[in-house]
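User: Structure tokens for this complex, please. No commentary.
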Amino acid sequence: MTEKQIEYGIESLSLEFGKEVVDNAVKAVEEFKVEVPSWIFGKFGGGRFGDYMPPGFATNIYEKLDDAAIVNKMTGVSEQIATHTLWDFSNDGMEGSYDIAVEVKNAAESRGLKLGSINPTYFLKGSHTGSLSSYNEKVRERYIEQTILSGKIAEELSNKLLTIWLPDGTNYPGQSELDKLTQNTIDSLKIISENVSKSVRVLIEYKVFEPGTYSTVLADWGSALMMAQSYGKNAGVLIDMGHHYHSTNIEQIVSRLINSKVKGGFHFNTRYAADDDHSVEPNSENARVFYELVKGDVVFGPNKWDLMIDQCSSRENRIQAIIHSIDSLQISLARALLVDQKKLMEYQKEDSIILANRFFNNALILADVRPIVYKARHNKKLPIDPVKAYVQSGYQDKIEKERKN
Ligand code: RM4
Ligand code: MN
Ligand code: MN
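Assistant:
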């Protein structure tokens, strides 16, 4: 889009939705921030496609930080980076190290970045019997210890956020006692809660299945909420877009948690499978999630939720993929801000179902909000098309030549 097209677009949107609404949307896109995960830039899991990795991937946390820095440079919104304790602060993938975390924090800062959520890693070597729910006491102790260390890292080196996702579950009925798995998790979290500063926010994430195929300890938002409540007042629920059955109404979960004043967080990605972690797309579901976040006043301000991208898949160029996600989130935010909630409620009061739906979708699906997002970038002197700017930056050629992968 040329500058002229952007201006005409803003004018046309202002005629339809009102100048103030459109100006507000531009301002909100300018202010919007989102955290990106370190793991998108490096080796993740493995096993699929003969361990295929896109060329130029990061081989250590410092290269991941380099990649995160270029993403932030192109988009201006992602100075905060999420880290995984055993991927990013460990020499052997078995134990976390506070000293490495200090080094990583300094390295992040020297690149204009900050550490965001700290993710204890429960799913690498030694986790086949589960982590916090394991029937094996030694295993539980090991993961409790790693979580307490992650809590200290969160408290002292990051934005005081600990995000917990367990791979715990079973593959066969009868394999384990279901109540025991729940109780072990509650007990482990209790010890963690007693040993991690209350200033650290904790978000507990759920996932409908995988790796457990028969039972999953934290399979839904209800289980996560139950665990959060037993942890304490500083805990809440982390929703990951990809972690649901296809038919789950995720925006309703968002709205319910906000309505109940539960502390929340969101891991954005897509949900073509129950967990695939591809790029966020600017689709209507994403816009509806944003409508609830905007309506609930948790995108900015004192009740702000922790908004993060959690994404990693093996085929696509990772840096392009994460910039694409950021672009999609900004589009969704702009769309959500175009909905006139008062007017919508008038239709609802009159029980004009179709008119309400058309009015809602007119903003959330039909309006072309690209001028809003582009104007916000223009105002901040950022590239209008950050994916294109990345492609033209020469960075990809550089990492493909320099990195030993
Ligand atoms: C899990 C979950 C967590 C993420 C790991 C890598 O499926 O989504 O949030 O940290 O993957
Ligand atoms: Mn996640
Ligand atoms: Mn996931």
